[in-house]
């Protein structure tokens, strides 16, 4: 890794400042300082870095493409809402040195920290932070400082005993392996050791049969249990000698419980596990609103970063709002507002790089040339002057019947938009029907919906009959946008290939007045829900009430963290993160009797009981911007999000001054009437008796993905990113 490298930090085409960048000796921190003043400007931790992108992969670096070659440019992408860092190295060699070095540093972070086999990098990081005088040793005063930093308020006598036990050299300081011994003693998990001893005859090891008993009785593993036990020993027992005897030590047992196999999230559901051959309307589809915005709806920044982040989160339905730009070039921004603009061609280029790492849904005209074989082409496409555009080599014919499935559309781009004529007209030739004009809402957002797709010839203009391009219309092969004028009219005159967009307020009214009809409608036709135009701050509505009636495309502002996006991430974290989740059977039946306001209308078994014992927490993070020396008072809240009868939450008591290893041992119980629609959200907060509790971490998942037994819950930040090694340890039981 290059140290003290002079590079250009770039914020705009005109703002390019030279800065010295250096990796600190702890290999965990990078600082940079001004070349002119020598003053340190800022620093960031390697743990804050999500990825590194090479070349011109940001708007700023793309604007400098003619001035600086891609080999010298790279972008450091941070977790959460922190802005990217665009850098230009002095040479291609220096750029590669930094790019490769950063990749090597950030890749090992996925290793789970346990008291059995702690990450050497993690220990070194804590040692560097605690070693105030930088002499490579740690005295007891520095140990006390370390405990405060680690969110531990430990009795001084107990801390001194741990210190003296680890000080094998009796030098009054800790160094090297002595610090490792101290750290292991500090992270000892008594509650896990007690569980281990309940199944171990000698209290020192689990034999193969003892491990099988634990897996069957507590983890409710009922198939291939002996084979699973052998796999767990081979995978998680750190001692080769113990592993060769086919037994599991306490360290190996803890490693298993902290692993994906010991997670509350069923590991089999992480992969693609659902049937992908159902019609599109039978799936919930991960969807974003005004995807290009990374801030508010009025003056916020438009950025390709919005598309990259949404796609990496598994979003399948994106919005691209195109308007006239200089020299006839289409620009993407929020119309009739002061948001910044980005060229449409940059959006297309970005989608080309990221769309099928997870997926996407796009908008032409430039896509006709750029999307290539990804586009879901009709059998005949007309050019801007009405001429027939021949099929291109390698463009497979994609079925466009009402039963079109995600499997058939894999690696394809589907356009939702207004259309001249019905779908059948595309197959037989152009029609003459005028595009529908939505009257879903009288607000500003509805007006935006009416003007959303705007093209004229090769230019882009008002959305009226004369200017809606035939070529664009011909590309709408499944999702023709139509106005919604009631369920009866839709059933009589609409087709499965059509889709209606509803503002959140209108959707709520339909849910209240005609819940069952709404569910039936969504069993055969797509519905899109979008936020109120009053949400200028890019806040979100609850997606759960829309999912409760089977709405497939529930568009959210992905840039805004909060409970709503936690629910979205929680629902779509399953099924390979493909962005499609199959609705339960009673929501795919056009004659269903189900109404979310009447859980008894659901066909199937009766309510189930979810019992959660919240046992302990491990290394919970401090609250952002907290005072030096402040230690959190954590509590756990478990929330159920589902049909109205299932909405509930319960909390544990708070544990005073212990964010490192709090113990609750409290049992919470919930009754679920419609478990197929339920999401469970675990939230850790810092209790405050005089003001609102502070957020510490959360984890959300669909009830269907919960694995019973003793499980760890690996917490996420407010932005949905991992915060290792923070976790909760729980025991889950599900009974009918």
From TrEMBL:
Cofactor: Ca(2+)
A single GO cellular-component term on record: nucleus
Region (Disordered): 386-408, 424-451
Catalysed reactions, as listed in the record: a 1,2-diacyl-sn-glycero-3-phospho-(1D-myo-inositol-4,5-bisphosphate) + H2O = 1D-myo-inositol 1,4,5-trisphosphate + a 1,2-diacyl-sn-glycerol + H(+); a 1,2-diacyl-sn-glycero-3-phospho-(1D-myo-inositol) + H2O = 1D-myo-inositol 1-phosphate + a 1,2-diacyl-sn-glycerol + H(+)
E.C. number(s) listed in UniProt: 3.1.4.11
Signal peptide start-end: none
Topology of the protein relative to the lipid bilayer: Peripheral membrane protein
Protein name in the entry: Phosphoinositide phospholipase C
Organism: Pelecanoides urinatrix
Organism phylogeny: Eukaryota, Metazoa, Chordata, Craniata, Vertebrata
